[in-house]
Amino acid sequence: MNYKRPKADVVIIGLGWSGSTMAEELTRAGLKVVAIERGAWRDTSTSFPTTRDPDELSGSVRKEILQAPVTETYTVRNKVGQTALPMRKYHNLTLGNNVGGAGTHWAGASWRWLPFDHQPYSHVMQRYGAGQLVDGLILQDWGVTYDDLEPFYDRFEKIAGTSGTAGVVNGQRQPGGNPFEGSRTAPYPTPALERSRANVLFAEAATRLGYHPFPVPSAMIGAPYKNALGLNLAPCTYCGYCQLYGCGNWSKSSPNICILPVLMQRPNFTVVTECEVIRINTTPDRKMATGVTFVDSDGNIGEQPADIVITATFTLDNTRLLLLSGISTPYDVASGQGVVGRAFTFQTLSWGFMFFENEYLNPFMNTGALATQIDDFNGDNFDHTGLGFIGGAGIQSLSNQGLPIGMAGLLPQGSPQWGKGWKQAFQKGYQNYAQIQGQGTSFAHREQFLDLDPTYKDRFGQPLLRITFDYNENDRRSGRFIRDKCVEIAREMGATQVGGDSFADRPYSGYTPWDSSHVQGGVVMGEDPRTSVQNRYQQNWDIPNLFVLGASSFPNNAGYNPTVAVGATTLWTATAIKDLYLKNPGPLVRL
Amino acid sequence: MKRRDVIKGGLVLMATSTLASIYKPAYSKTYVGGSGAWRATPPPPLSVVDGSRLVYLTADEARLVGAIFDVLIPADELGMGATEAGCVTFLDHQLAGPYGTAAKDYKLGPVVEGLPQQGPQSIMTPAEIYRKGLAEFEQAVHAKFDKSFTDLSEEQKIAFLKSIESGAIAFDTLKSDQFFVLLLQNVREGYLADPMYGGNRDMVGWKLVGFPGAIYDYRDWIVSKRGKKIDIHPISLLGRA
Ligand SMILES: Cc1cc2nc3c(=O)[nH]c(=O)nc-3n(C[C@H](O)[C@H](O)[C@H](O)COP(=O)(O)OP(=O)(O)OC[C@H]3O[C@@H](n4cnc5c(N)ncnc54)[C@H](O)[C@@H]3O)c2cc1C
Ligand code: SF4
Question: Under CATH, domain A2-581 is a member of which superfamily?
Answer without folding.
Answer: FAD/NAD(P)-binding domain (3.50.50.60)
